[in-house]
Amino acid sequence: MAASQTISPRLLFPAAPFGLPDFLPTLRAYSGFRVHEAKPLLEHETLGRIGSLEIKLATTAKHVRLAQKLRYQVFYNELSAARHPMAMFWRRDVDHFDSICDHLVVFDREARGTGDPRKPKVVGTYRLLRQSVAERHGGFYTAGEYDVGGLLAQHRDLKFLELGRSCVLAPYRDRRTVELLWHGVWTYVVRHRIDVMIGCASFEGINPDKLALPLSFLHHHAQAPAGWRVRARSPRYVEMNRLPKKTVDAKSALRALPPLIKGYLRVGAFIGEGAVIDRKFGTTDVFVALPVSAINQRYIEHFGPGA
After folding, report:
1. In Å, how far are 74, 127, 175, 205, 244 from 211, measured between CA atoms?
2. Which of 13, 124, 245, 254 gets the highest tally of CB atoms within 10 A of its CB?
3. How far is CA 292 from CA 133, 179, 197, in A?
């Protein structure tokens, strides 16, 4: 897009879902600013280190903007997210939820960012939204795809945390970066006394027939038990039960699962009922719920604050 083109205010500040006013949440998100209750508990604290990599909560608007730039690089340049005019103009992946979320950011202290060679490079990020904040600002992002209201109502005594927008720069997609991100998530869970983590995890591609094996495996072997089951919203519901259980080869299905979904299952997560096609990002999404009480103790010891 040429710099001289006029940009519509509706594109600059698109309507926000769930009844939120158009202007302020989106303005905050593009600027990197957040609402007061989304600010980190302890500013400038390093949550973990592995070699030159360091994980922190974003404490400034600039940190949030760097996370958005990383998301753009991964989702738009590398993967198949739809080329929204404003995302292309700003070269950032932004939505109004950025203004109410905390953002975990992984820095490489030995590399330098392209925008400011004096600053370390941002190589990984995760977006976190506490239930208490979501309820004051229109709800969870996941509620646009899944009926999470029933789950929250059944577990009113538990505190939920939504995870989303996870991505890592290609050269850093190895075990240590992913483990550092999960270490940061777990430290956050402990600090805020979270009971349940929820969110959408994605397969690349929007043709569920091509994903029949892994989707069927999740339906037959990983579906949430009664009391934890969340169903995709009816206009967007895509059947996951595409192959008979007896024809699903578990080893082949596991190889076809994205590493993030495989990791969630390994630590004890459940999968919701029905998939959702996300045409904006070119993905097929599934709902993931992970009660803290279901996590195997050995993973808590591995990713915990003392790890």
Report:
1. 22, 26, 25, 8, 14
2. 124
3. 20, 17, 7
CA angle 85, 283, 183 (to 5 degrees): 100
- CA dist 278 and 287 (Å) reads 13
> Which amino acid is it at 175?
R
Kindly report which listed range (34-43, 69-78, 166-175) carries the lowest average pLDDT score: 34-43
What is residue 256's three-state secondary structure? helix
Packing angle of the helix pair 175-191, 259-267 (nearest 10 deg): 50
Statement: the pTM of the whole predicted model exceeds 0.70: yes
Place of tokens 């970066």: 177
Instruction: Say whether 139 sits in a helix, a strand or coil.
Output: coil
Q: What is the pLDDT of residues 264-278, one digit of tens each?
A: 999 999 999 999 999
